[in-house]
Amino acid sequence: MGEIPEKHVGEAGSPKQHTSETASLPDQVGNVGRRTMEELVEDICASQGKTQLSLGPLEKVYVFWLAGMSCDGCTVSVTGATEPALEDLLTGSIPGVPLVILHHYVLQLEAGDHYMQSLLKAEQGKLDGPYVIAYEGSIPDENLTAGGEPFAGEGSLPLWAPSTERRRVSTAEWVKRLAPGAAAMIAVGTCATWGGIPAAYGNITGSMSVMDWLGADYRSALGLPVINIPGCAPVGDNFTDAVQAILLFLQGLGPLPEFDELGRPAWQFSETVHRHCVRAGYYEEGVFAKEFGDKECLVEIGCWGPVVQCNITEKGAVGHQGGCMNAGGPCIGCTMPGFPDKFSPFYKSPPGSLFSSNASRLLGSIVRPLRRISQRERNREIRWHETVPSGWAMEKGDTSLTHKILEFFYEAMQFQGAKRPEKQPAKKFPPGHQSLPDRVYDGDYQVLPEEREKKAEKRA
Ligand code: SF4
Ligand code: SF4
């Protein structure tokens, strides 16, 4: 394990002369802010008044983002989150939520050993707050590497030692070092939660999920098993929302968040995509897309939505916009443990849909014409008896007898046990009362212009 030196030559102090440990350590390349993440957060807090920090026992929480076999898609998603945004967590903008000090290889101000020393401090219990690990990507079996170089590594140890004395550290090793002391271990994205694409058939890296790697007995320092936020890539809001819910609970300001038997936030993953899909109405009426770009239900071109647990249809991809079916893409089950193998070949109708889509087709063939009749009648104002005063080429006066009979029974059922809406009873007005239009038009004003004309002619 690398030691953190007490004093080194070379000043890296920020222009603001922060009194940080960094100032006493060797200079670094690439830190344009010339300060640590903690110092940045302190500055933001100072400018905001720190009002939110007095609401609970926690003032700050460190989050260490580690990446294994990943494509960085989870990072892209989470940095695009909007409800709450990552910036909200990092700047203490959410009332009651402690400050989040994120150590992320993309967003970090510090570089090199300055960046890595925070991980060592966490392991050595030298941080002034609890820490959480967010792990993106699957964990490879590092025993399978050639020459001992990790498949997925982060930094090298010992810190500040000459390169000849160092070795690269795999992210799997960081998990081993940091997982026991972490307040929570959050697996972000399907590679981390279930194994995902790096763990698919044919992989040569022995990749697996965080849960597989740590085992069922793993508990964090707060007694939590691994928390799983799947998706390839996940909805960024699902991560920030879960972090927010956990932190509010730890502050004593929110309920205990509920997780399902696979460690997924239950409020995010208990529903299927299909139940909230914008195309679900087409499925129910048995109308299906034949090719990409069609507007109907996508099940016959490979949508697994009816069995997949995912909330993208409610949350959208970013800022409540987009999402697979909204953008025309069938669900390929990317949030599910079996992804990708159990959902391949992609874009082929799932075998189970054969029964249900044909059942919908049959039911739809009866329901759709009936709905059209009902819909047509509901497109008419109550005063439009035979004529519709529209200049937009609506058909006029062609209500068939069948339609009238069906509508008669429909209305009878609609108002069974309920009061049918009526015109205002005349008794509301004093006897003999005549409104101004009554006096002018002799009670004929409540008819359409054409009829009014005819009645005027008769009066004349
Ligand atoms: S597109 Fe998929 S999720 Fe949407 S209604 Fe069809 S089967 Fe269900
Ligand atoms: S709808 Fe399906 S493919 Fe799209 S994000 Fe959800 S699980 Fe993945």
Brief write-up:
This protein is α/β, with parallel strands linked by helices and 460 residues long. 30% of the residues lie in helices and 8% in strands. The strands form two sheets. It has a five-stranded parallel sheet, sandwiched between helices. A two-stranded antiparallel ribbon has the order 4-5.
Please characterize this protein's 3D structure.
- By secondary structure, the protein is of the alpha/beta class.
- It has 15 helices and 7 strands.
- The strands form 2 sheets. A 5-stranded parallel β-sheet has the order 2-1-3-6-7, with helices on both faces. A two-stranded antiparallel sheet has the order 4-5.
- Helix 2 (73-79) packs across helix 8 (236-250).
- It is elongated.
- The chain starts with 36 loop residues before the first helix and ends with a helix.
- Mean pLDDT is 87; it is low at 1-20.
- The structure holds iron/sulfur cluster (2 copies).
- Residues 231, 273, 308, 310, 312, 324, 331-335 line the site of one iron/sulfur cluster.
